[in-house]
From TrEMBL:
This is ELMO domain-containing protein. Keywords: Signal. GO terms for molecular function: GTPase activator activity. It comes from Henosepilachna vigintioctopunctata. The keyword Signal applies. The lineage of its organism: Eukaryota, Metazoa, Ecdysozoa, Arthropoda, Hexapoda.
Length: 311
């Protein structure tokens, strides 16, 4: 029954496309690029159209772009050549005159950049995550010490192995044991928040030290790295990135997404007024569902609203 439904849906879609092409003189991609609102609505519609295409040349193009983005080759001058090649392929296959439909070329090129830029971003973020924290790596150690300096600028760290790490929310005397599954990505997220958003990070850290509603800043931060990565991997974050990115999305945009989650989780945690840290899992699940609901909205685009409150 399910296969029959898929067949009927595919057949109906083909008939509608044929009818609209005949009556409007425009292919589906043109109708999307001219008719859909810019940002996520247009990009998502183009993405769906390309992936549902039965045209062998379009299928080969999609597979080619997938391979390029999975191997992080969409960058620099290469990016311009790849985008131009993708657009030209569609122009030829769909018999579109670029001189007449120059706006389509512009809109479609932007969509291709965002669709496969997002796919490449997933690969880039994953590449950072699989790097395990190595205490023998000078760069890793520097980032960790920079995190301490950013969060505790007025407090000298006595030793590399110290209970002081617990003051910024690590579980033991050596933070390297806490990164585990999130690898270097967990550290880089925390460091970005602490250095790029110093005020908000200090604000959140102060809340984490509250005698009643306190929590482990670093451990919660690493948990939120996992949440942000999950949204990125399963595509739930696409609307946010499609609406936010003005050019090829970079890992910096992922870090900013993470910072928003951390800042908003802290606010939500305080609103929930937890009895103790044992409520973390339940509150985190509710927060995650709230974010998931917002991410499903066509105009989803987070903005950090800085408001220092007293608790």
């Amino acid at each position: 029954m399910y296969n029959l439904w898929l067949f009927l849906a595919s057949f109906l879609r083909s008939m509608v496309k044929w009818f609209l092409r005949r009556t409007t003189g425009l292919c589906e991609l043109q109708r999307i690029c001219y008719g859909e609102m810019s940002g996520a609505p247009r990009i998502s519609a183009v993405e769906k159209s390309l992936h549902l295409s039965k045209c062998s040349q379009i299928k080969k193009l999609v597979a080619h772009l997938n391979d390029i983005s999975d191997n992080c080759r969409l960058k620099g001058s290469t990016e311009r050549d790849i985008l131009k090649g993708a657009v030209n392929t569609v122009l030829v296959v769909k018999k579109i005159n670029p001189r007449i439909h120059y706006q389509f070329v512009k809109n479609f090129s932007k969509c291709v950049e965002q669709i496969w830029g997002y796919r490449q971003l997933v690969a880039q973020v994953e590449a950072v995550r699989i790097v395990k924290y190595d205490s023998d790596n000078i760069e890793h150690e520097k980032k960790l010490l920079d995190l301490w300096q950013a969060l505790m600028p007025c407090v000298q760290l006595d030793n590399r192995i110290s209970k002081q790490w617990q003051d910024i929310g690590f579980q033991g005397d050596d933070p390297k044991t806490d990164f585990r599954g999130m690898g270097l990505l967990g550290l880089e997220n925390l460091l970005f928040f602490a250095t790029e958003y110093r005020g908000p990070a200090q604000h959140v850290l102060s809340h984490s030290l509250h005698p009643v509603y306190g929590y482990c800043f670093a451990i919660v931060g690493i948990n939120l790295t996992s949440m942000a990565l999950q949204f990125l991997r399963n595509g739930e974050a696409k609307i946010y990135f499609y609406n936010t990115s003005k050019c090829l999305p970079t890992i910096r945009l992922f870090h900013q997404f993470y910072c928003y989650l951390f800042y908003e989780f802290d606010r939500y945690w305080l609103e929930c007024k937890p009895v103790d840290i044992m409520e973390f899992s339940n509150i985190k699940t509710k927060f995650e569902n709230n974010i998931r609901t917002y991410l499903s909205k066509p105009k989803a685009a987070f903005k950090m609203n800085i408001a220092v409150d007293t608790i």
